[in-house]
């Protein structure tokens, strides 16, 4: 199954592939229209196209992966639910203010396993993006998410959260309704839930907006997704006073799936089809489903006290680092520093 699109966005690093594909199509058209045997040339060109794809997509920079994570045809939460879940019943509202359409959730069945699914949802066009607030949730979105998690706790159902947001909405209304408090409550309460929790970062994992539904026993991330305390553009604006340095910031932040796995901030990378998740929804959905079910089975096998202890220890370990001790000469402050301190 492939996501239909009239015209896919092309990034600069993909142009060599598109040029080769154009030449391949010309060869095929020539062979058909002029009735000539170009089988060998076509086979050679097909091989070149595949080799070029392998070379390009396996050596992407951090910024290039961010671009793929934001691809407008990339599958979103509801796309995955339609592909891997049955009996999805969406539930609405936080029972306090309103229904935030930037977060969707409800009951679903994944290969016979009954779960509660909660995820960020972006839009495909301007109208839907306005409805979904570009995937940036308000406080009521996180309160709706917690309401559904508490419901899952009452019924003893595992929770699956799907993360894909640039960040929580930073507007005046969100501040008036206490966005930071809503996220903080989720962080606290998710550590205390006794049911299993699996999180999957499928696109953008932006700051507290992502973490607000991301405290889980296992955190998975798609190969071309990213998870970061700040966007590359925001980081560049702060450090270099210029958003044009976003590529440099993306590399410095170490926000790619590979970096996050090395830092032990995620538990597993979910491989994507060559070219990105948007190229084949059926393949990436099946892969994600396999990984979700594997981790759910492992976590369900753990006794509740052990599961909660491991979840707590997992997040307590985040941010630990070691400093390499220098020799005495290196650690002695310069003379002018000593004089300044003495004064």
Short recap of the structure:
The protein has helices at 15-33, 39-57, 62-69, 77-84, 126-132, 139-155, 172-176, 179-192, 207-211, 232-239, 246-253, 257-262, 281-300, 304-316, 328-331, 335-342; strands at 86-90, 103-110, 113-120, 159-165, 197-206, 218-222, 226-228, 268-270.
| CATH H-level homologous superfamily name of the largest domain | 2-enoyl-CoA Hydratase, Chain A, domain 1
Radius of gyration: 24 Å
CATH topology title of the largest domain: 2-enoyl-CoA Hydratase, Chain A, domain 1
The mean pLDDT is 88
Number of strands: 8
Largest sheet: 8 strands, mixed
Given as residue ranges, the uncertain stretches (5+ residues, pLDDT < 50) are: 2-6, 331-343
Distance between the termini: 73 Å
Number of domains: 2
Q: Which structural category fits the helices and strands? A: alpha/beta
Give the class-level CATH name of the largest domain: Alpha Beta
């Amino acid at each position: 199954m492939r996501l239909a699109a009239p015209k896919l966005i092309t990034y600069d690093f993909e142009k060599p592939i598109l040029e080769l594909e154009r030449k391949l199509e010309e060869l095929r058209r020539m062979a058909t229209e002029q009735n000539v045997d170009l089988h060998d040339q076509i086979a050679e060109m097909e091989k070149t196209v595949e080799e070029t794809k392998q070379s390009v997509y396996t050596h992407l920079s951090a910024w290039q992966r961010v671009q793929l994570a934001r691809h407008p045809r990339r599958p979103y939460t509801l796309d995955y639910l339609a592909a891997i879940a049955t009996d999805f019943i969406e539930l609405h509202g936080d029972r306090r203010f309103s229904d935030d359409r930037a977060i969707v959730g409800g009951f679903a069945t994944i290969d016979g396993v009954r779960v509660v699914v909660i995820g960020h949802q972006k839009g495909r066009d301007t109208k839907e993006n306005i409805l979904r607030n570009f995937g940036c949730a308000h406080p009521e979105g996180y309160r709706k998410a917690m309401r559904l998690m508490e419901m899952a706790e009452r019924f003893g159902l595992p929770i699956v959260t799907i993360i894909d947001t640039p960040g929580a909405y930073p507007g005046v209304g969100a501040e008036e309704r206490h966005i930071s408090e809503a996220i903080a409550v989720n962080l606290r309460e998710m550590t205390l839930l006794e049911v299993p929790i699996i999180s999957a970062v499928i696109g953008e994992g932006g700051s507290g907006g992502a973490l607000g539904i991301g405290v889980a026993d296992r955190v998975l991330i798609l190969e071309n997704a990213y998870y970061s305390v700040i966007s590359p553009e925001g980081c560049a604006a702060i450090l270099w006073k210029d958003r044009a340095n976003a590529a440099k910031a993306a590399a410095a932040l170490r926000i790619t799936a590979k970096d996050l796995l090395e830092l032990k901030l995620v538990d597993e990378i979910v491989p994507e089809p060559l070219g990105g998740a948007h190229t084949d929804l059926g393949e990436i959905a099946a892969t994600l489903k396999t990984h979700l079910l594997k981790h759910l089975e492992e976590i369900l096998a753990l006794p509740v006290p052990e599961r909660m202890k491991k979840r707590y220890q997992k997040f307590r370990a985040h941010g630990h680092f070691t400093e390499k001790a220098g020799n005495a000469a290196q650690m002695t402050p310069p003379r002018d520093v000593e004089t300044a301190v003495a004064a």
